[in-house]
UniProtKB/TrEMBL annotation:
Similarity comment: Belongs to the ycf54 family.
Lineage: Bacteria, Bacillati, Cyanobacteriota, Cyanophyceae, Synechococcales
Cross-referenced InterPro entries: Ycf54, Ycf54-like_sf
Source organism, top-level taxon: Bacteria
Source organism: Synechococcus elongatus (strain ATCC 33912 / PCC 7942 / FACHB-805)
Name under which the protein is recorded: DUF2488 family protein
Amino acid sequence: MATYHYILASEKFLLEEEPLEEVLQERQRHYAERNQTIDFWLVRQPAFLEAPELASVKAQCPQPAAAIVSTNPQFITWLKLRLEFVLTGSFEAPTAAIADPLASLVAA
């Protein structure tokens, strides 16, 4: 089981109102310079929000939602500082209620 950390906001906010593409490209460049593996993913309408234990988080976020999910908590803190008006949290996966969030990305 892995711990995933996330920022969460409305899809419109993250993808249209914020310079997210620029921020993620900057971070990808940073990782490439240090030969680090990418450990973050953009997830539209994240399925983990359907888990009963995350119902209160889903209720706080305008829908449709989008999230940046990472295994690196420092990266999520950095994003929170850059984007400000986002929710943050973490979850364990896979569990009975939450599938591995990366499984659908590999299949896509």
